[in-house]
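Reopening: Methenyltetrahydrofolate cyclohydrolase still failing for me.
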Amino acid sequence: LVRARFSKSTLIDRRISRGYVGLGSAGLLRGGWRELDEKLKRFSVGDNNRRNCHHGGSVLHVSANAARARSEEEQFVRPPLVVVPSAEITAEVIDGKRIAEDVRREIAQEVMIMKETRGQVPGLAVVLVGNRVDSATYTSGAKRKPAQMLDSLRMLPLPEHMNEEKVIGAISAEKDVDGFHPLNVGRLVLQGRTPLFVSCTPRGCIELLLRSGVEIAGKHAVVIGRSNVVGMPAAILLQAYNATVTVVHSLTPNPAEITKTADIIIVAVGVAQLVRGDWIKPGAVVVDVGMNSLPDSTKKKGYRLVGDVCYPEAAKVASKITPVPGGVGPMTIAMLLQNTLDSAKRTLKS
Ligand SMILES: NC(=O)C1=CN([C@@H]2O[C@H](COP(=O)(O)OP(=O)(O)OC[C@H]3O[C@@H](n4cnc5c(N)ncnc54)[C@H](OP(=O)(O)O)[C@@H]3O)[C@@H](O)[C@H]2O)C=CC1
Ligand SMILES: Nc1nc(=O)c2c([nH]1)NC[C@@H]1CN(c3ccc(C(=O)N[C@@H](CCC(=O)O)C(=O)O)cc3)C=[N+]21
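Support: Ran it again with your exact input. Result attached.
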């Protein structure tokens, strides 16, 4: 294990069996710490072959058993890299809250420009039926006052007396910021067509992967869950990014045998801590969509949120993992805002 710490908030872990780790060139430093941090996430790993560290820079030697690491060269990066030898593998946390903040900042910038140049801002109408806690969380997270009836979403699942198909169909595909309308789902599934909107949660999962430097193309991705709102569109999207995709559902025998072959796992099941450490291939990337509340008397609210992944176990095996809370949830809200902005831009253009 190589652990690089640059500041209080930045901790980068890599698990490699042997070889060298190259830490960029002086050129990488130009963009400041944030950029260096990004580049480091993609540092090259060579097999005892120094030429793999293209531009020189800091080189760390990692022993064959991966438990001992030592610095071989003076580092030019400041603050200095600290290498902590550790027998326990700790995955890099994909900080959905921080990434969502980045996205929201980008959106705010665009909205400001839209306001200045066109005198208009995007608006979102929410139809909330019933009193589900997760729907209320989602709605308040979006925190958008409907300035105009530009776009809309209806919270799902609906109470039983309501027909989901009719409710979804009642909103035009052009305003369907949830990406649930059959026209948008159809366009997502068909090659060569582009949906007007992609469902927020799966889009958030992909965005988390992309913004964390995870390569999707050519990788084996396993999606657990096949619901219309998360699992199915997530699997389709991963395919669109050229992953080889396997879908696991409630009737799949031996799910762990399948997930153990995955480079990327997206879990959207709704069963607390279903995915255990031994379901995961060492070094795999784990995205946990699940949002389950477990009774917890030590918490003010009387419960705590956990995902569909047994986080403490998974974090010892995976190379990157999203936490719950603070992972996919905030990204879902950010993607809702992104879809709303995209829609407003489209409306203003036409
Ligand atoms: N973070 C966020 O933004 C969001 C989080 N969520 C959370 O994600 C989770 C999934 O949500 P959603 O997709 O709507 O749930 P659904 O209940 O609609 O779908 C669950 C899926 O998981 C499958 N499944 C159930 N049990 C198992 C099992 N033991 N092994 C393998 N597969 C199983 C089901 O299979 P089958 O099809 O065979 O029944 C189904 O396809 C929930 O915890 C939900 O709260 C949901 C939306 C947004
Ligand atoms: N039409 C529709 N579209 C949805 O996308 C939709 C929906 N209906 N109904 C409800 C579910 C659930 N959902 C959440 C999204 C973000 C958080 C979220 O931000 N969670 C925080 C935790 C907040 C807390 O601590 O309570 C986090 O994960 O960090 C939660 C739940 C979207 N859903």
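The mean pLDDT is 77. If you still see a failure, please send the error message rather than a screenshot.
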